[in-house]
Amino acid sequence: MLQVKHLTLTHRKDLRTLAEDFSFVLNDGDKAVIIGEEGNGKSTILKWLYNPELVEPYCEWSGEVAGDPGPLGYLAQDLTEEEKAGSVYEFCASSPFFFDQSPKELADIARKLRFPAEEFYSDRPVSSLSGGEKIKLQLGRLLFGHPAVLLLDEPSSDIDLETLEWLEEWLNGYPGTVLYISHDEALIENTATMVLHIEHPREGKPPRCTAHRLDYAAYIQRRSGAIAAQTQQARKEREEYDKKMEKYRRIQQSVEHAQGAVSRQDPGTGRLLKKKMHAVLSMGRRFEREAENMTQLPEVEEAVFLRFPEGTAVPAGKTVLDLRLPELRVGERLLAENVRLHVSGGEKVGILGPNGAGKTTLLRRIAEELLAHRDLHAAYMSQDYADTLPMEWTPVEYLAPEGDAASETKARTYLGSIRYTRQEMVHPIRELSGGQKAKLLLTKMMLDGVNVLILDEPTRNFSPVSGPKVREALADYQGTIISVSHDRKFLAQVCDQLYRFTEYGLVTVERESL
To answer: Are residues 295 and 288 in contact, defined by beta-carbon separation less than 8 angstroms?
Structure first.
């Protein structure tokens, strides 16, 4: 059992409170997911649980883990450059438990992970592994220590659909306790038995951190129902209160008018009106007390607001892309032959396939061609945001390079609509979370009025809170989209044409197969 008591986390740089007085209990076998907007401190909570020293450089904290939860295993969001440069064997040997494993134990771990046992001793560079292989390798290193609790930060990032389905099966069958962060809503829906929600309803207000022993779908349904019911009750009470106050004001004005018109020669009437005004004022004070006890409108964290402008459509009959590649190579390696892709105006194309197949290479080739077209206004989102974002600039500088007051005001307005705090607006972009960087890129494309979006894993860093709004904005987008994605909800909701990238080219995929 893992029990956290009164956890408070405060960012040192801008004094923003990420979590306040958060307490929760995870029982043996729980599969708990942490959800919340980008930048709300989800990864910081996992780091603190594993080792408070990991957050010490940027965060002040108080609170405790009660009792002894047993060994903890932590999977970081990203491998270090040193880990990527080393071999698979060196990566495994960095675990103090690796050499304690018998051949049978290693074979058992490998079997559960569907990872070749001999690979644990491989000289292959870690950087050469596919996304799915890296996740399995990292999980393997964690399992060498037989952890009682796994803390997983984005295990579903950068893995293909086949590996995602395996990860779901593995999580559901894992006998221990798991606390994880994921941006894949389908994976959360299929695995989470408990939800921890980190909300920052309003800037300057304390965060709200809650724990719910419900699966994700049941939690979202209950939360939406509770918000709707509270909103309806609050509005009903306010309507009734407004009617009372309108009646009260009419009575008060009537008595005031009568008092002004009464003659000094009629003191009896004056006394009666004075007594009546006293009763009216007492009524007003009673109404004020009632107002203090009325149901409040729910304070919820507003979702991001993204909407591409009108006028971004490409005529339906216009050819946006007519790609014909006899071969697609990376260096000497042949990725695919006979690659054909025709895209017309208004189409939204999704390309899927296994890790390492060459989808990103294909998308870069498409981007090179479309960005050079003068009759189109295309924009490219790379998986590595550093390819296009100036990391030392601030978000305001990026959206308003002109630097004038009007442009900066407009930039701040748009940044506010995608849930940036005032402090984040002036932080260097390199300090932002992956989700905040992705929102910044999409906002720039929106402001620039592009009519062709070339997107490599566009939703990979969006939380389950932001994800639905981002998908809605892209589904409503009037322009053309060519994307690579493993996000099942994105592929189903946004894309009207799906292709699987294979060594023999692009093969049409039926939507029903997702």
So the answer is: no
User: In terms of Cα–Cα distance, which of 475, 405, 398 is closest to 441?
Assistant: 398
Q: 248-252 long-range CB contacts below 8 Å, 24 or more apart?
A: 248/280, 248/283, 248/284, 248/287, 251/280, 251/283, 252/277, 252/280, 252/281, 252/284
Q: What does the alpha-carbon distance between residue 130 and residue 358 come to, in Å, rounded to a whole number?
A: 11
pLDDT in tens, 329-373: 888 889 999 999 999 999 999 999 988 788 999 999 999 999 999
Tokens standing for residue 490: 């994105």
- Torsion sign over Cα 457, 461, 464, 467: negative
Q: What is the pLDDT of residue 301?
A: 52
Conformation bin of residue 435: beta by default, left when phi > 0, alpha when psi is -120 to 50: alpha
- pLDDT at position 263: 64
The secondary structure element, H or E, covering residue 506 is: strand 505-508
Residues of the chain with pLDDT under 50: none
Residue with tokens 């005529």: 315
Task: Write down the pTM of the prediction.
Answer: 0.76
